[in-house]
């Protein structure tokens, strides 16, 4: 087995056993800002699988997303029965929300991909890989996270796979 296999196993073991290092890491993350720039990836094997390279133009950002039900928007246009509901489902995953938050915070960079790094009772934490198209020399579409063109965005839209055998999810 290769090095990254062992790194992945170690990361998964830390999470499944809720090791003291993992709990300490979560405590630090809880106190940090919603979008925090990180020196190096927490799970290097996952980051490398998703396209991260340790060179100029690639950045890692940790994003904290609140868990739980989303509050509904305030009713406009009168108090009609169709406005009488408590919560509204966002229609996208927490991971897509994290990518969008990172994209808003760093408008000059493009979101390449993201992956899960932890969760507690109140938040889920994702690391988002950002690229500076000018420094990295990579050509990417603008606003990928907001148009659902990242991997998790395509998944939430139901178009992750192509071809004849791909089935649309039942609605």
Describe the structure.
The protein has 171 residues and is an alpha+beta fold. It has one domain: Ribosomal protein L15 (Ribosomal protein L15e). It has 6 helices and 4 strands. It has helices at residues 3-16, 20-31, 44-49, 94-105, 133-136, 151-157; strands spanning 35-38, 58-66, 110-119, 123-131. A 4-stranded antiparallel β-sheet has the order 1-2-4-3. Strand 3 (110-119) and strand 4 form a beta hairpin. The longest helix is centred in the first third of the chain and has 14 residues, at 3-16. The mean pLDDT is 86.
Order of helices and strands: HHEHEHEEHH
The strand count comes to: 4
**What's the gyration radius in Å?**
18 Å
Q: Which structural category do the helix and sheet elements fall into?
A: alpha+beta
Shape: globular
Helix content: 25-40%
User: In what order do the strands lie side by side in the largest sheet?
Assistant: 1-2-4-3
Unreliable spans are none
Summed up, the domain count is 1
């Amino acid at each position: 087995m290769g090095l990254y296999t062992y790194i992945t196993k170690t990361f998964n073991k830390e999470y499944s056993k809720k090791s003291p290092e993992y709990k300490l890491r979560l405590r630090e993350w809880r106190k940090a800002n919603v979008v925090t720039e990180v020196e190096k990836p927490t799970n290097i094997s996952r980051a490398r699988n998703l396209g991260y390279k340790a060179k100029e133009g690639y950045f890692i950002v940790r994003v904290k997303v609140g868990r739980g039900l989303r509050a509904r928007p305030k009713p406009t246009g009168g108090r009609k029965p169709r406005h009488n509901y408590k919560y509204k489902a966002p229609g996208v995953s927490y991971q897509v929300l994290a990518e969008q938050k990172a994209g808003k915070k760093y408008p000059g960079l493009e979101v390449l991909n993201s992956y899960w790094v932890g969760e507690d009772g109140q938040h889920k934490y994702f690391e988002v890989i950002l690229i500076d198209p000018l420094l990295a020399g990579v050509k990417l579409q603008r606003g990928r996270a907001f148009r659902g063109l990242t991997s998790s965005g395509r998944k939430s839209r139901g178009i992750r796979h192509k071809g004849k055998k791909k089935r649309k999810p039942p609605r």
